[in-house]
Write a structure and sequence with these properties.
The chain is α/β, with parallel strands linked by helices. Among the domains are: about 110 residues, 2-Layer Sandwich (Nucleotidyltransferase, domain 5), CATH 3.30.420.10; about 100 residues, no CATH class. The chain has 13 helices and seven strands. The strands form two sheets. The chain has a five-stranded mixed beta sheet. The chain has a two-stranded antiparallel ribbon with strand order 6-7. Helix 7 packs across helix 8, helix 8 crosses helix 10 and helix 10 packs across helix 12. It is globular and about 65 Å long. About 5% of the residues have low confidence.
């Protein structure tokens, strides 16, 4: 394949797997290439992208740690290379709109390449500190779930007289050890924030929000810190999967709107408990929640609306570098 000329735009779609990378390049027709998902293979991919010349736009699905590693490697190549990390569900819907039902690595790579050519482009350039913070908080979340499982099993075993007491002690020891690991990682996350002035300011703004304690603020900040600065509050809501999804067909099918869940499950989870606390302790959000209930909304619907409000609040605090203000978030009509 010939090298792209200076000034031209070449599009690259990369399907990232645990063992291999399938790459579709469009700068001179549509060409498929494969690379091992190893340090050597990633270096070959980096060199291949550099050879294309001109402006190279790379599309990768946000499908996990592997894809983020590849995206970060390419995003750090500097001028001439732009990376877009696409929502997998949106890419799938895009493929279905083109009549593509098959889902193989080569097909997915081609679809990602076409997605970059046809859909609005948003470059992704997160800081290394933001990525470290997200890795730490996602590990903390996994350990919290594990600790809860240990405690639940310990409680169940303790209620039985037929099982050895040593099992109860063992689960208690595992829960205690897991809690120590959580505390250690949380301190590491706080050190990452303290070393970055922007992260530190945003963290303090989140802490000023009713319902957001240290643990919740860490989880929310880590998920928001990697998002492009160009996104508005509505796009944050869509990223979290808290946007309403309508289902209507003709005149006979009309279902109640539900949240799409086509987004970041970590962020939704991090906002749930703060929303529960906020409706109890923040007058503005409590009044907003009650108004929704008075209009006939179910409690869960109203709570999801509060989660959206908390995202709007975070966006406003980050954008204007100001602490939480409930009066601005929920003005009285």
């Amino acid at each position: 394949m010939s090298k792209s000329k200076a000034g031209q735009i070449g599009y690259v779609g990369i399907d990232v797997g645990g063992r291999r990378l399938v790459v579709a390049l469009s700068s001179d027709g549509l060409v498929l290439e494969e690379y091992d998902n190893t340090a050597a293979g990633l270096e070959q991919l980096r060199q291949r992208v550099r050879q294309l010349g001109g402006v190279v736009k790379v599309v990768i699905e946000a499908s996990g740690t592997y894809s983020l590693d590849v995206a970060l490697l390419l995003a750090r190549m500097g001028s001439g290379v732009e990376v877009h990390v696409a929502n997998p569900r949106r890419v799938r819907r895009f493929a279905e709109s083109l009549g593509q039902r098959s889902q193989t690595d080569p097909v997915d790579a081609r679809m990602l390449c076409q997605y970059g050519q046809r859909m609005p482009w948003v470059s992704w350039q997160p800081s290394a500190a933001a990525l470290r913070l997200r890795a730490l908080t996602r590990t903390i979340a996994a350990l919290v779930r594990l600790c809860t499982q240990h405690k639940n099993r310990q409680h169940a075993l303790a209620a039985s007289r037929a099982l050895p007491a040593c099992l109860v002690r063992e689960l208690g020891a595992q829960a205690h050890y897991t809690e120590k690991r959580i505390a250690k990682l949380r301190q590491q996350a706080l050190r990452v924030i303290a070393a970055e002035p922007e992260l530190a300011r945003r963290f303090q703004h989140l802490l000023s929000t009713p319902g957001l304690g240290e643990s919740s603020a860490l989880a929310v900040l880590s998920e928001l810190a990697v998002l492009p600065a160009s996104l508005d509050e509505r796009q944050w809501v869509a990223h979290a999967g808290l946007d309403p999804k309508h289902h209507e067909s003709g005149s006979s099918v009309l279902q109640k709107p539900r949240i799409s869940k086509a987004g970041n499950a970590y962020l939704r989870s991090a906002l749930y408990m703060p929303a529960l606390v906020a409706v109890q302790h923040d007058p503005a959000l409590r009044a907003f929640y009650q108004r929704l209930l008075d209009r006939g909304k179910a409690k869960l619907q109203a709570l999801v609306a509060v989660m959206r409000k908390l995202l709007h609040a975070a966006w406003g605090m980050f954008r204007h570098d100001q602490p939480y203000d409930g009066a601005k978030l929920c003005p009285q009509s």
